[in-house]
Amino acid sequence: MNDAMEVIQNGAVAIKDETIVAIGPRDILEARYTADTVVDCQDQYILPGLVNAHTHVPMTLLRGLADDLRLDVWLMGYIMPVEREFVSPEFCRLGTQLACAEMIRSGVTSFADMYYFEADIAKVVDEVGMRAMLCESVLKFPSPDAPTYEDSLAYTRQFIEDWRAHPRITPTVAPHAPYSNTRETLEKCTALAQEFDMPLMIHLSETKREVDDNVAEYGMRVMPWVEEVGVFSVPTIAAHCVHVEDQEIHILHKNNVSVAHCPSANLKLASGIAPVSHMLDIGVNVAIGTDGPASNNDLDMFEEMRLAALLAKVAPHNPTAVPAQQALAMATRNGAKALGLEGKAGILAEGLLADIIVVDANNTHNMPHFEHNPTAVYSQLVYACKSTDVRHTICHGQFLMRDRQLTTLDEAQIAQQAAAYASEVGTFLSQREENTLSKLIAVGIDVERAESFEVQTKAVLNDPSKIEDLLSHEDVEVIRAVHYRQYDTYFLFNDQDNSRVRYREDDGIDADGNVTSVRMRLTYTSGEKERSFHDSILLSHSRFIAPASHPLRFYEEFFKATDERHLQKERRRWHIHYQGTLYYVNLDRLIDPEVDQLFVEIKARTWSQTDAEHKADDIRQMMHILGVDTNHVVSEDYLDMQETL
Ligand SMILES: CSC[C@H]1O[C@@H](n2cnc3c(O)ncnc32)[C@H](O)[C@@H]1O
Ligand SMILES: [Zn+2]
Questions:
Q1: Which CATH number fits domain 45-426: 3.40.50.620, 3.40.50.720, 3.10.20.600, 3.20.20.140?
Q2: Is 85 among the annotated ligand-binding positions?
Q3: What is the pLDDT of residue 477?
Q4: Interface pTM (ipTM) of the complex?
Q5: Choosing a second label site near 549 at 20 to 30 A (CA), which of 57, 125, 519, 627?
């Protein structure tokens, strides 16, 4: 297969060192050249090595860890917490060895990676003999190899300096995605790539939610915003590009951005179908990537090529979209262009790098062959061939697999070490899954432990006007008044701690009834230890509070609680001093479930038995001012009251 994608029957390729010196009919090349090594490729296809344009190779060690989940739950709920715990230089080296073995077996000679500890990944790629663009990730939050983004930029700079002269490795930077970066971090990554004249890789427009969030935060869809930030001023590989509108495709084209289409991952995470055919029609260079083996779950480019061709036909109802030949070009020539290897690899031609695979053509699933149509060979390769048909893989003129034997990797040893990792990760996850609090900590940024002892009394308030009597009482000074509508979702767990996680949306309401602020918080409590104390209740709470940075759906899917309950109420709250001591007075009206009564709740923090007694006494006095009869004291919380309402 050459630049024009011609098929040469009975062809041959002559290689010297890392270069293809000739390509043409076998009899002519045999007459012209002698060679130390001659490989008989009778009944086989000789092709350019496949290019995996987007992956995260060390994630082979997380393959099958969490599946059948939405991207946010998969990534933030499972993958990233495990990565925080386990990803190390050793993890990355082993995961890369496993990935390289898998890719060489399936005919991949070059790949573009985005992960952490890329310097360790580079060492493995150097030893193994593959070609790669290795992109060190930058995120706005701490990552496994950098506590801050400044550290990851410093790491990346050193990584580029150390590896940029390597003949097979292009070291560079990858701001992970717009949502995991800021304008500033994107600008700094771009400047770094520019300084070293390197390309850059980024995840873009993978999910609809990403686009919606981008519009909400920056008032623009993803592509115009990323263009405005300046990212596209360097050659870019944009992974995914599923949710892109016409005008955004033109932005990609205008800026020579290469797209790494990842059909399996987009399907598996239900991200959507990328408009590949349309992008190709407009002239965008669309390559193919497997994405990480935890979201695919393999690194099989034959599978991706086939899926790319099939999937492109579905949305436009057009079986002529992305024909087999084009799919193969995407996995070879377009991939090479994306990795900055245009004119160097991706096709078989004189003077180009000897990145070559040889594929068996005569396995049962490939029979028979039609000779009348020369392009039928592309259909065979894309629709019928399996990655296991790859017989030899050559990169940079060196055999990495010969007759299905890997030459630079010890697969048995790698498999054994990978199994040991899997068992450690499995133990970690199963322990975490058993403990609701650990699950909350895994996804809650800024989880804060709030241990408190409170004295609290709640009662039915029959006469609402009495609240004014309390607030205007001579012993009362009102410090602050607020009005909220509170939407609570409780996740209840049947575990030994009787855990509860409350997701609360607090809508602040102004005097005209308008919502002026919205805040979401998560509160974890285990079975509260409580005891009666006169008419009051002394509560000892051990709570963990965290801002809820994901939508409610995320927590529903992530926690998989035994039971889920909802409660909605209108709350007026006053912070008051009663005889100089701080109390909180809540006046609550339950909206869902609807209750035809008002409840008053008075509470205060406490720290000692004497203090609690004193405060319980104050609360009793205030309840008296409110005209509350001790018979109306309610000891259950609203959630438990639901059962009796
Ligand atoms: C920072 S690079 C690696 C980082 O990206 C995560 N990741 C893997 N696959 C995807 C994907 O499809 N979209 C977004 N992020 C992904 C991976 O787990 C690493 O944390
Ligand atoms: Zn990815």
A1: 3.20.20.140
A2: no
A3: 97
A4: 0.95
A5: 57
